[in-house]
Design brief:
Oligomer: single chain
Radius of gyration: 19 Å
Strand content: under 5%
Shape: globular
Number of strands: 0
Largest sheet: none
C-alpha cells in the first residue's frame, strides 16, 4: 500500500502517535487516579507517593511530551509544504500542544521537585502542581479532536497560509479567535486563578474537556 510518504516520515508519524498516547495517558492517570488519591491521603502517604511513584510517572510524562512536541515541529514544517494544509485546526492544535509542553516542563516538573524536597513552599506548590495537571487534562481532549480534524482535512476553506505561501483568509475567521480566547483563558487561570468547580473532580474535568472540544469543533465547522 502506497501512502504517499517515505519510510522516514511514516516512522516519525508513528513515534508521534506513540508519544502522544503515553503523554496524554499519564496526564489522565494523574488527574483521574493519583490526584484523587492525594486529596484523600495522609501527609505520610503523600510523601511516599511523591518519592516512590510520581517521579517515574513524571519522567515518562515530560519526555514523551518533549518527543511529541519535537516531532510535531517537523510535522508542521511538513504540512506547510502541502496545499492549504496549514489551517485553523492545525494552528490551534499547535498552540495547545505548545502550552501543554510548557506546563509540563516549566510548572508541573519544577513544582514536583519542590514537593519531593519538602521545601518551605511545598504546600503552595502542591496547589499549583494540581492545577497545572488539571489544566493539561482540560486541553487533552481538544488536542486529540484537533489532531483528528487536521488529519482528515483535505481541503481547507480558510487556510492560514495559502498554497503560494501568502497569508490566508483563516486569520479573519471567527473560529480562530474565539477558540484562541478560550485556550488562553484556561491557561491564564493556571497562573492567576484557582481550581474551579468545573474541574475539581475527574467527572467534571472530563465533561468540561468535552464541552471545550465540542465548542471548538462547532466553531471550526460553522464559523
Amino acid at each position: 500500500m502506497n501512502t504517499g510518504l517515505d519510510f522516514h516520515n511514516e516512522l516519525l508519524i508513528f513515534l508521534f502517535a506513540i508519544s502522544i498516547i503515553i503523554w496524554l495517558g499519564l496526564t489522565f492517570y494523574s488527574n483521574f487516579i493519583s490526584q484523587e488519591f492525594l486529596m484523600n491521603s495522609t501527609d505520610e502517604e503523600k510523601r511516599k507517593y511523591f518519592i516512590n511513584i510520581q517521579p517515574n510517572v513524571m519522567w515518562h510524562m515530560r519526555w514523551s511530551a518533549l518527543l511529541a512536541f519535537s516531532i510535531g515541529l517537523y510535522l508542521m514544517s511538513f504540512l506547510s509544504n502541502l496545499p492549504n494544509a496549514y489551517n485553523i485546526g492545525t494552528s490551534l492544535a499547535a498552540a495547545i500542544i505548545t502550552i501543554m509542553v510548557a506546563n509540563t516542563w516549566l510548572v508541573i516538573w519544577p513544582k514536583q521537585k519542590k514537593i519531593i524536597a519538602n521545601t518551605q513552599d511545598a504546600k503552595k506548590c502542591e496547589k499549583r502542581y494540581d492545577l497545572a495537571l488539571r489544566t493539561n487534562g482540560l486541553f487533552s481532549l481538544p488536542l486529540v479532536g484537533l489532531m483528528l480534524y487536521a488529519a482528515q482535512t483535505k481541503i481547507a476553506d480558510s487556510p492560514l497560509i495559502t498554497s503560494d505561501g501568502s497569508i490566508g483568509s483563516g486569520w479573519y475567521s471567527l473560529s480562530l479567535w474565539l477558540s484562541l480566547l478560550v485556550i488562553i483563558s484556561i491557561e491564564l487561570n493556571l497562573f492567576f486563578g484557582k481550581n474551579r468547580k468545573w474541574m475539581d473532580s475527574p467527572k467534571r474535568l472530563i465533561l468540561s474537556s468535552l464541552v471545550i472540544t465540542i465548542f471548538i469543533g462547532l466553531m471550526l465547522r460553522f464559523y
